[in-house]
Amino acid sequence: MLAVALAAAASIVPSAGADPGGRRPDIDIQILNVSDWHGQLEPLSIFGVGNVGGAEALATLWNADRAANPNTITLTAGDAFGGSIPLSNFFEERPAVLAMNAMGFSADGLGNHNFDRGIDHLQQMIDIADFPYLSANLKNVEDNLTGVKPYEIFDFGRVQVAVIGVTNPEAPGLVFPGNFGTIEVTDPVAAVKQARKEAHREGADVFVVIAHMGVTLIDTDTGAPSGPIVDLANSLKTKDYDLILADHTDVPFNDEINGIPVLENASRGASYGRVTITVDQNNRKVRNVDVERIVPFSDGVVPDPAVKAVLDPFRAQLGPILNTVLGSSTVAIPRSDSCGQSAGRTCESLVGNVVTDAMRAAYGTDFALTNAGGLRANLTCPATDNPTDFCPAFSGSPIPITLGQVITVLPFGNESATVTINGAELKTFLENGVSGLPGVAGQFAQVSGLCFTFDISAAAGSRVTGAVRQAGDGSCTGAAIDLTAGSSYTLTSNDFVLSGGDGYPNIIARADTRNLMDQDLADYVAASSPLSPSIQGRVTCTTSGAVPCPVVLP
Known about the structure:
The protein is α/β, with parallel strands linked by helices. Helices cover 23% and strands 25% of the residues. It contains twelve helices and 30 strands. The strands form eight sheets. Strands 1, 2, 5, 6, 7, 9, 19 and 20 form an eight-stranded mixed β-sheet that branches. Strands 10-11-13-16-18-17 form a six-stranded mixed β-sheet, covered by helices on one side.
């Protein structure tokens, strides 16, 4: 039996009747899409661009798109909540899902961040959603969750569109152990093929894959992409799939892979996709796929009243808490790193330096290390004022830092944890921290108290060539660090990393958990303002072969 989209999620009109010659006209099916939305309920302030996205502006823009073509479904491929801004995170992600209901989402996938708070919390989110959650490659899902399906079929009269969900295979290693219950993530290729076979048997004509997998690297010389979504597309039959919507890596991409159109947006609603699939209603074959990636500027867009009504009560509760100014900085402290990667996952970053300095200062350890994937925003308030964020309007320097910004940087509720390790173990941590390069990966290590050098052309696990302590002035001129088992050091990290998250060694049993990371950062900002962080060469790339280092911006 066909699974038909709810009217609130997909506005569908009957197909036009046949012309006098007996042929039916083509039908244009529109798909709207965001990638890795992360509950970005408020507009993003992007330097040099302006304010973009936000739930209310996106809803207004999408309603206009739907008015232009009522044959519309609205999709995203997982991580629509988790790692979110305080307006969602403080209320256990309910505002994000309730806003998605009001925005008219038709279906969502399941990514790693959907499991950040465990199975019970995910079930609560599924229960309040007016749309289905889709993943075809989850084994034992029925023993843990209700309301998750491998695919959904949307009925457009003579044309049926199947949407197949995929979860990223490495997802269980990106959350706390046990957060997946007994669910196992299986091979996405086999799962997609099986789901397509079943959907085709039910009458589907058009096949769309929403995968929480993305492009990790685009070759600067050839423009060729690489990454899990490329591997997935290359493993599928071109004629069997009409569109793949990618996610997870925040690498914008719009091109064909193996003859299949693939779209990945900039994350958090910084761009959205508008895809038109033209189908011949007579033979139910796809004639054309047109893919656009749109920057949704929010200034001047009338906020959607239905979404605003959902969010305003939460804003009223949160504002008095998070508007508190903790301190300031003489320079902006962005999430992006010194090589320009927006998520800070390829090179040293200012926010990484400040957060790890705060962790090390709180407990007086030799070193601190945190995964860049846990740092989710700029620490300083944006220069372009957004009346709905938790920052005051300001001009010039110093730049304010509020409690809201601190929690936006560290939204996961992780705890700082201290542990004694030997030099060989420290080297293993540093090796893991650069093992994903030259791709973009969340395990990239941001550090304090030490500076280390690595060879990006060497095999992962054998890249770190040396490390020194930071001198008192923060420069990388201190004594050499003994990276053998005969040495001993104290380390502050976070409980996720020390529990084996992001591929790091699981040594949490030896560690002492301390305060919440956001509290340590808030205390450091308050005690040390005005901050004046700089890029100090804490993580230095070299190359002995063909793999180039990321280019550090001037």
